[in-house]
Amino acid sequence: MFSADGERVAAGRTKRKSLRIFALTIVGILLGAAAFAIPLVGKDIGLAMILLSTMIGFGFSARLKCTRCDVDLSRKFPVRALILLWLAKDKCPNCNEEL
Questions:
Q1: What is the C-alpha end-to-end distance of the chain, expressed in Å?
Q2: In degrees, to the nearest 5, what angle opens at C-alpha 77 toward C-alphas 8 and 92?
Q3: How many angstroms separate the CA atoms of 38 and 81, rounded?
Q4: How far is residue 66 from each of residues 71, 76, 77, measured CA to CA in Å?
Q5: pLDDT at 26 over 90
Q6: ∠ CA 41-45-30 to the nearest 5 degrees?
Q7: Helices 43-62 and 13-37, interaxial angle, to 10°?
Q8: Angle, alpha carbons 42-21-1 (nearest 5°)
Q9: Cα angle at 65 between 23 and 56, to 5 degrees?
Q10: Which of 7, 26, 57, 72 is least buried, going by the fewest C-beta atoms within 10 A?
Q11: How is the chain split into domains, by residue range?
């Protein structure tokens, strides 16, 4: 991870989990889009892959917890924003620790 100045910044475990969830969701969406475009596979399977990977990605991001105090972050942040937590500079609202 890099800061705005271009310096390398160590990311917390929660931010790394969020980045992995985001990357896997994007890969699933791209595979679904590729399957959507292939006439042999069919549009229904491609659309199902896109929707399923999106639902799974947001489901896993809703379960992110602070590594220090084990508080559920979805209770403090909207779930839509948690999938992009790896970009944020937020702290845990409960223990004020870097995520």
A1: 13
A2: 55
A3: 32
A4: 5, 11, 12
A5: yes
A6: 90
A7: 170
A8: 130
A9: 40
A10: 7
A11: 13-87
- Torsions phi, psi for 29 (to 5 deg): -65, -40
Look at residue 81 in the predicted model and tell me its pLDDT. 79
Tokens of 44: 């229904």
Task: Count other Cβ atoms within 10 Å, centred on residue 80.
Answer: 10
Mean model confidence pLDDT for the chain:
81
Tell me the C-alpha distance between 60 and 99, whole Å.
16
User: Is pLDDT above 80 for 47?
Assistant: yes
Place of tokens 């917390």: 12
Determine the average pLDDT of the residues in 71-97.
80
Exposed, middle or buried: residue 68 (CB in 10 Å: 0-12, 13-18, 19+)? middle
Residue 60 has pLDDT above 70, yes or no: yes
Whole-angstrom CA distances from 54 to 7, 57, 68, 80, 97 are 32, 5, 28, 11, 29
